[in-house]
Design a protein that fits this description.
Asn/Gln-tRNA_amidoTrfase_suB/E; 6% strand; mainly alpha; single chain; ATP binding; 3-stranded mixed sheet; nucleotide-binding; Asn/Gln_amidotransferase; GatB_C_1
Length: 229
Amino acid sequence: LRCDVNVSVHRPHEPLGVRCELKNLTSIRFLMAAIDAEVARQIDRLASDQRITQETRGYDAAYVDEHRATLPELPDARKQRFMRDYGLSVEECNTLFMEPLADVYFEQEACGSSMAIIINIRIVNELMGRLNGCHLPFSENPVSVEQLRSILVALHNEKISGKLAKKILQCMIVDRDTRDAEAIAAAHGWSEIRDASQLEALCRELVANHADEVEQVRQGNKRLFGWFV
């Protein structure tokens, strides 16, 4: 076997990058190693604001084998590891890796918590979605890893509901509130009541204080159910 390969890199949704040709690769193993090494080289240059020049390059298998351990983790390998280690789906992984630094933030959070499934959902579906809604790139994310972890812990311990978690996250992003989840909830008077007797007492009080609305519901006005909630 003897073959050549052209390699270029580019960020998602950007034009294709400048390609470099690798010549005289003599095995499938060398081919794969050469591509990995060239991808890493080009990413490293672009990350350092250096240009990629179109050129023909040789491949020194011994050199690459010697320095393979020092190469940065490549995006595809990193995605595979995240799916394997943290249980992310392909879609969640693709969403996470669209934003620079989001994967680093995610891994810092995941390493500090055992609630992997909750983390995946909150990071991918909530934090990134709300940042996008505020037109903030992830590099300007104001929510610290510790703050996000406090939300997850409060959820896990049933101190707050999912609805309150979203409101707290919004405070952290929009108001730049640097307190943890429970402190923010306490400051706003938000709490989760789970005692059945307390809930029943509140419901009875609500019904007693709104006799007109109760009568309308009894007469078939189902729209008022939402008002009571």
